[in-house]
Give the backbone structure.
Amino acid sequence: MTTQQIALVTCESLGVYTNNADSEDERLIQFLKDKGLAVSFQVWDDENIDWSVFSAIIIKSPWDYFDKIEAFYAWLQKLEKAGRPVLNPVKILRWNADKIYFKDLAQQGVKVVPSYWIDKGQSFDADAVFAQLQADKIIVKPRVSGGAKNTFAISRSQAGAHASRLNELLQEEGFLAQPFLNEINTGGEWSFLFFGGQYSHAVLKTAKPGDFRVQHYLGGSVHTPTPPAALLATAQAIADRFATDCLYARVDGVVQDNELVLMELELIEPFLFLSMEVGATERYYEALRQKLLLP
């Protein structure tokens, strides 16, 4: 179909993130090749790559970016200078990398999980956090993070035991605290997938017994029930407003009082659950085709 060289961006090692997961990247690249695209895997922080030779750069699985965030920001700047189409757009990637984007969403009326922000260099003040969040149990995690890295579930009685470690981590980066949502254990966490702004499919993720982390590589389970129309409408509205010009978007949330409460808006490197829904990979390709104006 085309001789355009397309980069499918990944990282040097997918490591633990492939546990209990299908080889989504391998399936996707083969699908795109079968469609006639000249696509190849490229490691985002490989200094030997000349990004200007690619007609398009698709961000897929740079799953270590949050461990090297300054290098990632520098790489995004390099992509801007290369002047090639990047999917998702660089400005979106930069905005979405730091969870401070929650403030933007909340200010524009999106119902998000309440957050308490702890800046780099500050101390973890348990009394202040629990008082503001009005919770007996909280989740504390880095502002720039992924894969449940350095994520803590802390009850009031445990706060003192975690303070030293958190204060140590706060010397390196900023954190946020949120109420622990029992709905994750009782109802699970929804992920809504959108390609080119169009709804593709949804999955419901549940944690294994005794855990709060729903990630499949940590033992969580993934189901494919039909999502309630009201939840889908909320997810679509979020994608419409904040994922403009994106090839892909994943809206993650839980249900409280029959409403979707946003937990994450994933616009950098979300797992797409392509194998969970018939036709999902075809819809991804169709969105890509339209973005790149392919015949």
